[in-house]
Design goal:
- The protein is of the alpha/beta class.
- The chain folds into two domains: 13-152 and 391-540, 3-Layer(bba) Sandwich (FAD/NAD(P)-binding domain), CATH 3.50.50.60; 167-388, no CATH class.
- It has 16 helices and 19 strands.
- The strands form five sheets. It has a seven-stranded mixed beta sheet. It has a five-stranded parallel beta sheet with strand order 7-16-8-9-12, with helices on one face.
- It is globular.
- Bound molecules: 3-acetylpyridine adenine dinucleotide.
- 3-acetylpyridine adenine dinucleotide binds at residues 63-64, 150, 156, 171, 189-195, 197, 214-215, 336, 339, 357, 362, 386-389, 442, 501, 506.
- This is FAD/NAD(P)-binding domain-containing protein.
- GO terms for molecular function: flavin adenine dinucleotide binding; N,N-dimethylaniline monooxygenase activity; NADP binding.
- Keywords: FAD, Flavoprotein, Monooxygenase, NADP, Oxidoreductase.
- Pfam families: FMO-like (PF00743).
Length: 541
């Protein structure tokens, strides 16, 4: 689905300006337009709805949360939509966004290929002034950067990067028409969720596949299923699924085992792990014992179960140790496990090679390949860069947000992120940040937490409009309290012990701290509800 760039000029004045047309942008456009009747538009850098699913169209890209469930709960969308696979591919998700557009007529209020490059709050005018790359300037009372966590790619500064003569792509800037690697030599750099998915696809087509691994992924079996359309017609069932998802830690239609690991006997534990592993998806992580992420020994138990299962799928003893070592290299789940279908089996093929860049990092790129510090040249025609993102703060910086004092938000956050509920920021009046820092976003089913946050934003704007409030911003002490909650909850977990994008430690020089809220969706909703009952945490004008 590609909607041509709109020839219309962006409006000069708006009530609300949303940046980004992913799940949160679409949800908020619809709700603000239909329920609040405000003049609201989306500015989107891409050429269609979809957000992350517009950009991430690399081979094998698919979601790791199941459907039905990974979707908006707006009935006008799901009543006429049938999912084909339990874990939809990017192609199916793009079709889904085209369907959303058809049902809710969203693109009429979108300005595509309109990348926002600056946004500043003007105190005298009590509104935001927003500029796009194309040179347009728009004033808006409310600003909603709905830009997700993965807007800013991370590409390491490898020597010789621009000398490579083959084709090279970052995963989130993949050509829509695809890349034909049949008979070619390919390299995949990075083994996060993206690298695993690309490897799994490319290894089936390319003549030689080189996978450059620094840290092995703890990938879990996806257990993909074709879905039966008739089972998606149960209206009551769907309503219950959405309602149930709001009650679980991760916004998914299941929760964790309500016991600690060592409450069970070794046999009971084995049976539990076995069941979760067989059910597939992220369950061995998210639906496991409740102390998995807080207790070292408990975490180790589940890791060792995973390693045993995974090693059994790999033929070569050296590869067993490289892909699934007996001893964990980091606590299980503190780096996001990818979902795989036959990732490990690829390494049993003679044309698939694992390159250890932990011990021999990439030294440089040359015109015909990648050289590692042991002096080896790995000749390749195509390279997939799957090194991830400068999550959240990279995107905020790229958007050039300046507060009421003219200070860049990214600069304010250089030594630590401060938000109120992961939704608002002091000195940034009337700005709301869905699916951003300090929110449950990446530790939850995306659309579920987006709706929790989105409906909070709609409620607060409604209250402002009905009470004639011009501006609202959180007090500094309210921000401080939320930061303390973020840190306290994260410090109860094993998360800070690992270098990962959850902690910002994947980017050289970035401030290391927990970027997201890991206290679970029910507690988060309670905090959001409390904030709406009184205005004590806000400064209003
Ligand atoms: O990025 P990552 P990603 N030299 O940061 C390696 C979502 N997502 O794009 O672990 C060599 O996880 C790095 O190594 P190490 C999902 O939430 C979802 O894969 O730092 N290698 C790592 O292996 C996911 O978690 C899906 O040692 C370097 C990799 O690059 C998030 O997006 C699919 C390096 C980066 O992994 C990000 O995933 C895809 C260097 N200088 C993405 N720097 C779904 O399935 C980094 N690496 C829904």
């Amino acid at each position: 689905m590609t909607i041509p760039a709109s020839p219309r000029a962006p409006p000069k004045e708006l009530d609300a300006l949303i940046v980004g047309a992913g799940f949160s942008g679409c949800y908020l456009l619809y709700k603000i337009r239909e329920e609040l009747k405000l003049n609201v538009k989306i500015f989107e850098a891409g050429s269609s709805l979809g957000g992350t699913w517009h950009w991430n169209c690399y081979p094998g890209a698919r979601v790791d949360c199941p459907v039905p469930g990974y979707e908006l709960s707006i009935e006008d969308i799901w009543k006429n939509w049938t999912w084909k696979e339990k874990y939809p591919s990017w192609e199916e998700l793009q079709e889904y966004f085209a369907h959303i557009d058809q049902e809710l007529s969203l693109s009429q209020d979108c300005f595509f290929q309109s990348e926002v490059v600056s946004a500043q709050f003007l105190p005298e005018q009590q509104r935001w002034v927003v500029a796009t790359k194309g040179g347009s300037v728009t004033f808006a009372k409310y600003l909603i950067p709905a830009i997700g966590f993965a807007t800013k790619q991370y590409i390491p500064d490898w020597k010789g990067l621009d000398t490579f003569r083959g084709k090279i792509y970052h995963s989130s800037a993949w050509p829509k028409e695809g890349v034909n690697v049949k008979g070619k030599k390919v390299g995949v750099i990075g083994t996060g969720s993206t690298g695993v998915q690309i490897t799994q696809s490319w290894a089936k087509e390319a003549a030689e596949t080189y996978v450059f691994q620094r840290t092995p992924n703890t990938s879990l079996p996806m257990r993909q299923e074709k879905l039966d359309p008739s089972q998606q017609k149960d209206r009551q069932g769907r309503l219950e699924l959405f309602a149930d998802s709001l009650t679980t830690f991760g916004g998914l239609p299941y929760d964790n085992v309500a016991r600690n690991t060592f409450d069970d006997s070794p046999e009971e534990r084995e049976a539990t792990y076995e069941r979760l592993y067989e059910e597939g998806g992220l369950k061995l992580w998210i639906a496991s014992y409740k102390d998995l992420m807080t207790d070292d020994a408990a975490n180790r138990e589940s890791y060792q179960f995973w390693a045993k299962k995974t090693r059994a799928r790999i033929n070569d003893p050296t590869l067993k140790d490289a892909l699934a070592p007996l001893e964990p290299l980091h606590a299980f789940g503190t780096k996001r496990p990818s979902l795989e279908q036959d990732y490990y089996e690829q390494f049993n093929k003679p044309h698939v090679h694992l390159v250890d860049i932990k011990n021999h990092p990439i030294a440089e790129l040359q015109p015909n390949g990648i050289v590692t510090t042991d002096g080896k040249l790995h000749e390749v025609d195509f390279i997939a860069i799957a090194t991830g993102f400068d999550s959240v703060t990279g995107g905020i910086k790229k958007m050039g947000i300046k507060d009421a004092d003219g200070v860049e938000l990214s600069q304010r956050w250089n030594e630590g992120i401060y938000t109120y509920l992961g939704l608002m920021v002091s000195r940034c009046p009337n700005m709301f940040l869905p699916y951003s820092a300090h929110s449950p976003s990446v530790f939850s089913n995306g659309p579920t937490s987006i709706e929790v946050q989105g409906s909070w934003i709609v409620q607060i704007i409604r209250k402002m409009e009905s009470q004639g409030v011009h501006t609202i911003e959180p007090k500094k002490q309210a921000e401080q309290a939320w930061r303390e909650e973020i840190l306290a909850v994260a410090n109860m977990t094993l998360l800070p012990s690992t270098k990962s994008w959850y902690m910002g430690s994947n980017i050289p020089g970035k401030h290391v701290e927990p970027i997201f809220y890991i206290g679970g969706l029910p507690r988060y909703q309670q905090k959001c509800a409390e904030a709406l009952t009184s205005w004590v945490d806000f400064i209003t004008v």
